[in-house]
Amino acid sequence: MTACPALRVLSLGAGVQSSALLLLAIERRIPRFDIAETELKPGPIEDDHVEGCSPWSCRSGSPVLEGGEDQ
């Protein structure tokens, strides 16, 4: 039986901890995430912060998927 590779997902709440993890992954100090997503954040998301991180994250191979009620 072949094991499936683990999917590495970062729940990006735009706070200090998740932002630090994203930046560490972008700089290749920790393994990259397959996806950084915002859907699981309880309450409003700091849209400007997420939009600022998104291009850097995508270039490093970890696209940011923004969730919401309309999706």
What portion of residues is helical? 25-40%
Computed CA radius of gyration, to the nearest angstrom: 13 Å
Q: How is the biggest beta sheet arranged?
A: 3 strands, parallel
Helix/strand order: EHEHE
The overall pLDDT average reads: 77
Distance between the termini: 36 Å
Work out the strand percent: 5-15%
Strand order of the largest sheet: 1-2-3
Number of helices: 2
Indicate the structural class: alpha/beta
Shape: globular
* The number of domains: 1
Can you walk through the features of this model?
The chain is of the alpha/beta class and 71 residues long. The protein has one domain. The protein is 34% helix and 11% strand. It has helices spanning 16-26, 47-59, and strands spanning 9-11, 35-37, 64-65. It has a three-stranded parallel beta sheet. It is globular and about 45 Å long. The mean pLDDT is 77.
What's the structural blueprint in terms of helices and strands?
Elements: E1 9-11, H1 16-26, E2 35-37, H2 47-59, E3 64-65
Parallel strand pairs: 1-2, 2-3
Helix pairs in contact: 1-2
Task: Please describe the structure with a list of short key phrases separated by commas or semicolons.
single chain, 71 residues, alpha/beta, 11% strand
In short:
This protein has 71 residues and is an alpha/beta fold. It has helices at residues 16-26, 47-59, and strands spanning 9-11, 35-37, 64-65.
